[in-house]
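Feature request, filed as a ticket because there's no other form

It would be nice if the structure record came with a short human-readable summary line next to the tokens. Right now we just get the raw output. Example of a typical job, pasted below so the devs can see what we mean:
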Amino acid sequence: MSKKYVMGNSAIALGALSSGVNLVAGYPGTPSSEIIETVAKYPHDGTYVEWSVNEKAAMEVAAAAAYCGARAMVTMKQVGLNVASDPLMSLAYVGVKGGMVVISADDPGPISSQTEQDTRRFAEFARLPVFDPVSPEEAFEMVRAAFEYSEKYKTPVILRPTTRVDHAYASIDTPDSFRAREYEGFVKDSKKWVIFPRLSYMNHAMIEKRNIGIGEDFSSCRFNSVSGSSPKAVVATGVSYAYAAEFLKDHPDIRFIKVGTPYPLPESFLLKALDGVSEVLCLEELSPYIEESLLKLIGKHRLDITVRGKLTGDVPPSGENDSDSAKTIISRFLGLETESAVADLSGAPEPPARPPVLCAGCPHRASFYAVKRAMKGKKAYFCGDIGCYTLGNAMPLDMVDTCLCMGAGITMAQGFNHLDSEATAISFTGDSTFFASGLTGVVNAVYNAADMILCVLDNSTTAMTGHQPHPGTGRNLMSAPVDKISIEKLLLAAGVKKVVTVDPLDLDAAIKAVSDCAAIKGVKAVIFKSPCVAIVKSDKKCVADREKCVGCLRCIKEIGCPALSVSDGKAVIDENLCTGCGLCSRLCPVGAIGGKQA
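Raw output as currently delivered:
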């Protein structure tokens, strides 16, 4: 054994490796991405690991491994669980043979997500056990326990870390080497593995009965605990327990209840922990899940206990908790006087706003600008998608009218076209998103005779989540060279009428490509192909000649590159940020911007 100082996501990965995991699959998404990257980084004799094309594919790959009796883990963020929900709901009914752990990382805030959805709700909906870790250390232990519970009850088990657990650091004792477990292999049995309505009916009844047993099992689980003996109790889950513990360490008499296994609810444990309690405060992220569960439990057993939390306005209904908010909330609940931990800033000026922007030199900026120029004076709908290019909504580009979820831009553009055929419907999608969830929308567009332009912003990586490979990059996570899947050939095979590939930094050619596609009816596509500036560095820089600059500031007003600024009414280029893409030089009406070697 050795001690390793690691991120929470790495702790989860090491927990899986130390459990002898045989297969790990997933799709990148903050805050979960580093889990699979850690598995790939450490020696993993006998463990197969992959970035799947999307979360649904990952879930199904892992399911087959679990059917073989192998231990499998699948990773995603909370919105990815929506994509994987179809196979997961059926898996809950079919069950597994080997241990199967589903990591769904929630994102309170949200910091980098479309929603603040709570995976505990999904676990209850799917009737699957869920663990809610407090810290990286506990996440490491919970993964190992989750495999054991999965095999004991023949069911997938969900681990629900949140952003602060995923990205915190801690010292973990782990083995010095890892080896995958032996497994029996798949045993054919259509009565077990082929889902039919009759089997689902019988298994549903079994699941409801089984979950009562799991709840009893959880009641003696080491991840649930109680301390103190006061008639007022604080119940906390996940990282909120750590925040509460920081304050309550100075109040050891206060009854402090930790629920690490929120579903199935450990009823026996909670009834015992609440004995003698008259009032309880629930501190949790995101939804009032434990609060509602306690209300049901108290009503079921006719207990005289007042429950406070999100539903009563004692805890904020959305966003993250933290140590300061936990101190304030608990102090108010206990009737304690407390000094604010936050300095009085009432007289201080507001800090400057720093909205997220596309990187200096990002080829997506040029792609958006080319479309904007081609569509100038025309009515058009611009449907965005999930990725770096969502930032095309920012001024002065203002080129994203909608953004719903992965792949939705392609299909939403069709909806606009069918209701307003006079306008040009344009969708933007990244290369990774295209493979993950774009093909269905393309086929739907061709099949239903839509008139739209699909813009694929191909920067040859999954940039937003850490530059993971995808089917178009020519390599996979096992470092094996693989055939690149051509986006152009896929589009042509699907029946797209015209496909043009162009470098967006060749502005004139890019504008012409869009204009040419707009001139014909049907489904057309422009592939804007240029590498991500974060992985392909250039020694070129752009410089602005102050003598030539006339101060029109067109370069700044039209593209919004963060390397551009104004000094004494004239354009200035920050050489520390500039990548030499040259887009600004193509806009300058007087030729005041040129290039040089760094």
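Something like this underneath would help us a lot:
The two ends are 48 Å apart (CA to CA).
The longest strand covers residues 424-430.
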